[in-house]
Amino acid sequence: MPVLLGCIADDFTGATDLANNLVRAGMRVVQTMGVPSSALAGEVDAVVVALKSRTIDAAEAVAQSLAALQWLQAQGAQQIYFKYCSTFDSSPRGNIGPVTDALMAALGCDFTVATPAFPDNGRTVFKGYLFVGQVLLNESGMQNHPLTPMTDANLVRVLQAQTSHKVGLIDHTVVARGPGAIREQMLALRQEGVGVAVVDATSNDDLLRLGPALQGMALVTAGSGVAIGLPANFGIKPSQGASQLPVARGWAAVVSGSCSVATNQQVACFKAAGLPAFELDPLRLLDDQAGLVQQVLAWAAPRLPQGPVLVYSSAPADAVAQVQRRLGAAAAGSLVEQALASIAQGLVALGVQRLVVAGGETSGACVQALGISQLQIGPQIDPGVPWCYAAPQAAGGDLHLALKSGNFGAVDFFTKAFAVLA
Questions:
Q1: Mean pLDDT, to the nearest integer, of 45-70?
Q2: What is the CATH number of the domain that holds 276?
Q3: DSSP code for 47
Q4: In whole numbers, what is the pLDDT of the chain averaged over residues?
Q5: Beta-carbon count within 10 A of 42 CB
Q6: Are residues 104 and 128 in the same domain?
């Protein structure tokens, strides 16, 4: 049976975010880590190919995305979905625009939509401006992102700087009138030479109105929110069976490399509950990374039988800036990611079989270090973050894994996650 929806995600947490929404809408979903080398075993409705392409060179991001597209087409995918972050993480050079352009060219389509809206997590688009909660994107803390600072909330402007296509807008007044009005506006924009249309969405109702208008469109580009309105186009309805996972066992741990405001609050909540936490100092990693990793694992081993432990390198923006000035942004990020990935490997070797990883780049590094190639998507913990399951051969034993985007999750996410799995 061919795949109905083939998805390309630009980071690992974003991939699970998208897969989570598809599962909640009834689709059977498998997430792959990178482009698979062979066809999938078993029947699924959707496949999400997770890439680590959000912050790499644009040309390499395009090459990886086209390879994912080619594999998805070989699986018979009827529609392609390019998924990026709900905060539209990018730079003036890309990678959202260049990847969109390349996918459009490869698919032979001259029009697509773009909307990172995810109202369940407070990401809304109004008159083309992206809001995070009650504030504009560039006032939300994302202006201080260490790799992709977002200083403009106007998505038409941001995307126009990245793409060779003319960018237009389908505003909230059109969306409110339903699928027919949206399709009419798409046609009008195409006749004006627009190739990519940013779409307003301030509620899930808007996304559900948009969904039917996208039926048959070769390429959809969006955050994960639009996914709630697509399964119905294939005759699929919500089903609890789509999210069932094997029973969870083993010790529990959290590994966090995100420096977002939300993750810093989650770290503080975990510590305030009196639970054991170990803070990694990035500057100490310079002197003896292997030694510090072993110190962490020796600290964790006697504590794991008592409950979840947390290892984190999260820090406020000013502290991150200090480390970056000494090491450089890329080197500082890579240093921490690789250390946390080694720690994740060590924790699993100690018997951890329920693991939460916070931060997109950190998640990518940990999944790769653990040798995980596929994940089965399970129940939601908080909007955008599900539990997943890696088969025993992938990580050396059963492993339940939650990959959390830095900005996602309630304050008590790190403790709530394990309660949901139980």
A1: 95
A2: 3.40.980.20
A3: E
A4: 92
A5: 8
A6: yes
Asked if 236 and 26 touch (Cβ cutoff 8 Å), the reply is yes
Cross-strand partners of 49? 8, 32
End-to-end CA distance of the chain: give it in Å, rounded: 34
Q: Which amino acid is at 66?
A: L
What CATH number corresponds to the domain at position 221?
A: 3.40.50.10840
Cα four-point dihedral sign 250, 356, 124, 242? negative
What's this model's pTM, rounded to 2 decimal places? Answer: 0.82
Integer Cα distance of 314 and 144 in angstroms? 14
Spell out where 320-384 has E strands. Answer: 352-358, 374-382
Distance CA 255, CA 67 (A): 30
Q: Give the C-alpha separation, 233 to 217, whole Å.
A: 11
Q: What is the pLDDT of residues 382-403, one digit of tens each?
A: 998 999 999 765 556 789 999 9
Q: How many Å is the Cα radius of gyration of the chain?
A: 21
CA atoms of 214 and 34, how far apart (whole Å): 26
Taking the C-alpha atoms of residue 389 and residue 397, their distance in angstroms, rounded to an integer, is 11
Burial class (CB in 10 A: 0-12, 13-18, 19+), 399: buried
CB atoms near residue 371 (< 10 Å): 13
- pLDDT of 219 > 70? The answer is yes
